[in-house]
Amino acid sequence: MTIPLGAADFFALEAGECLDRLETLVSQPEPPSADEILRNARVLRGSALMAAQAHIARAAAGLEAVARAHRDHKRSWDAATREQVAQAVEEFRLLVRRVSAWSEADTARALRLGRGLETLAGGAPANPPDRPAEGQRPELHTGVRAFVAREGALIASALDRAARSLRSTPGDREPLYNVIRRMQSLRGLAELGDLPPLPEILDGIELAVGDLTRLFAPPPDVDQVMQSAGQALTRISRDVAERGRPDPEAEEARRFTELLLRAFAVERDVVPIESLYYSGDPEPSTAPL
Predict the structure, then answer these.
(1) What SS3 state is found at 73?
(2) What is the DSSP string of 158-204?
(3) Which residues of 109-128 are buried (b: 16+ CB within 10 A; e: fewer)?
(4) CA dihedral defined by 161, 165, 166, 167, rounded to 10 degrees?
């Protein structure tokens, strides 16, 4: 998978810092803070999604599952758990170093890592050990197809409203929160992992909304990110309704990933100077009282 050099460098830096923090947490003699492991696993997953590294992001989701199991007292933090998580951190380091020369072997390695972490967390792996080819996947039940098509269209509509709101009233966060609420129905779908790129699109939307609710000033053209997300989900909904499966290589999904990366992953802390004051401000440089 090829991504722009700047984004690859940014991902390597952010992922490396995150893995350093995880290594410190795991190496402690006493059980680490589950919330800290969860927070860093989410940062790792988010950074991977922003860099279009979906396989690393899925493996990081397995680490999140382990952290939640530890937090909820469903998995004790014993010597075996510590050792397996420590090994997983090293596996993530190897995968991050392979980003610029990614191969099918790296994809398989990331899938094994994610399945191992999901098993450690106490759940069933999201994908079987030997995932069949596209043509061999079992057909979705008619009811599931209708559900995905309907819910995807509703999320796309919410994204369109959010995009229009970002253009007219950038400070209004309620349309963004409504997108997240609308997404919850698909999040609970058991077949979600078998419908790429739907899980990745939902993760990207969630991360974009999370950043928007925290940033003082939204990135330029962020409304286009939301609009492209809606278009990607509209395409997925149509494909599922008509063909039973979304197209993993759909142009709409690639466009959303490109805009997401441009808006949030590269120089995400740099904002235009004009975004620091409102339009028509007669004295934009006046110091506050």
Answers:
(1) coil
(2) HHHHHHHHHHH-TT--HHHHHHHHHHHHHHT-GGGGGSTTHHHHHHH
(3) bbbebbbbbbebbeeebbee
(4) 110
221-227 — which CB contacts under 8 Å span 24+ positions? 221/259, 221/263, 222/166, 222/263, 223/163, 223/164, 223/166, 223/167, 224/163, 224/259, 225/256, 225/259, 225/260, 225/263, 225/264, 226/159, 226/160, 226/162, 226/163, 226/166, 226/179, 227/159, 227/160, 227/163
Residues spanned by CATH 1.20.120.160 within the chain?
137-267
CB atoms within 10 A of CB 35: 12
Topology given in CATH for the domain delimited by 137-267:
Four Helix Bundle (Hemerythrin (Met), subunit A) (1.20.120)
Classify 130 in phi/psi space as left (phi over 0), alpha (psi -120 to 50) or beta.
beta
Are 44 and 15 contacting, i.e. CB atoms less than 8 angstroms apart? Answer: yes
Give the pLDDT band (50/70/90) at residue 154. Answer: very high
Predicted TM-score (pTM) of this structure = 0.60
Topology, domain 5-120: Four Helix Bundle (Hemerythrin (Met), subunit A) (1.20.120)
Q: What is the DSSP letter of 72?
A: T
Q: Which residue has the tokens 């490396």?
A: 16
Tens digit of pLDDT for each residue in 63-96? 989 998 999 999 999 988 999 999 999 999 999 9
**Contacts for 126 with CB less than 8 Å, ≥ 6 apart:** 58, 114, 115, 118, 193
CA distance 117 to 105: 18
